[in-house]
Amino acid sequence: MKASLFSGLIDWCKSILEDPDSVRFRQAFKTILAILFCLLIFHACSIQTKVVMSLSVGFFMLSHQSSTRKMQMQIALRWIIPAYVLMYVLGALIKPSLVLSDLVVIVLAFFAFYVQRFGIGFTLFPVFAWALAFLPLILPPQTRADIFITAGVVFAADIIAFLIYFYLFPHDTFRLFRVNSSNYFSALSHLMVVLKKCYQEEFPAKMLQEELPRQMTRLRHLLSLNQAIYEIFLDSSADQKKAVANQYFDEYARTKAAGILVENTLAIVDEKQKVSQKMLKCITDLLNWYEAAFRESSIDEKTATAVFSCDVNQLTGMILAFREAIATEMLVSSKDKIFFMNLHLAFRQMSRMLRENYDI
By CB neighbour count within 10 A (0-12 exposed, 13-18 middle, 19+ buried), where does 189 fall? Predict the structure, then answer.
């Protein structure tokens, strides 16, 4: 039991370290702080009022997806806070009528999920608003006076949450994307090192079957963080959105190519394929080149795109040499040849992205 708790604590600490600018940790901390602060201020209210208020504050802290701080603040004041208060009042007022309450909840549910899926980019804000309309229907009935008291408490608590969200530990989302992209290329460079050691037989096969998937999991974790940040920029200016989108989709394609490298390397290890010296030299040369390119890359502060200082002509020659080695190598079966052709495909995909998107 103690070992599992200790392991869970280590994983939690690692997730914080891999979280650029600790944005998720800070967001969780601010959400808990806002709820506790509101409970302290409105401690004299009824249990039902405090439950509704706590949920409303939690929903508010998760309802922001605009790119700029100013736009986030405008949406919060014009739409999110009024909607949460009005939806709760509506649900509480229609509670006595079973037919009307069922009809309104169904109609609101349809529009909430439709808008969330196909409409505005406010994350789960429409669904949260519908949940606050549904909430009074499952709670004990209130008098009209209690309903409006609860609505006033919800409004005041959301204003407090607004101040905590925007003025306590604010973060720069664009900078966050740059930091995470830098971490991504560091992880990709390390993956190339692990793959190279695999072909040089510096790792036991059993260890590789654990290490390579672990490295891919970390790479996909960093990509998922950048995906979340990219979605924030959907409502940003055209230039900023284009720069972030280009960088994110490049990282997505690189992750797919890295996955092909890992899967086929593991397949070669599992099949106990003996790689010839010529083939081994081609693969390790390519891995060395990519490892150095990713390690020495930098992220432009203005555009958030990766900048590489490397000789792409040298890379082209190595990829051609690898293709010739595959064509001339006497492999046991066509299945074995497919593994190496897939490696060539992954290397070529990474090369194509460098050629198309960067001036190197």
Answer: middle
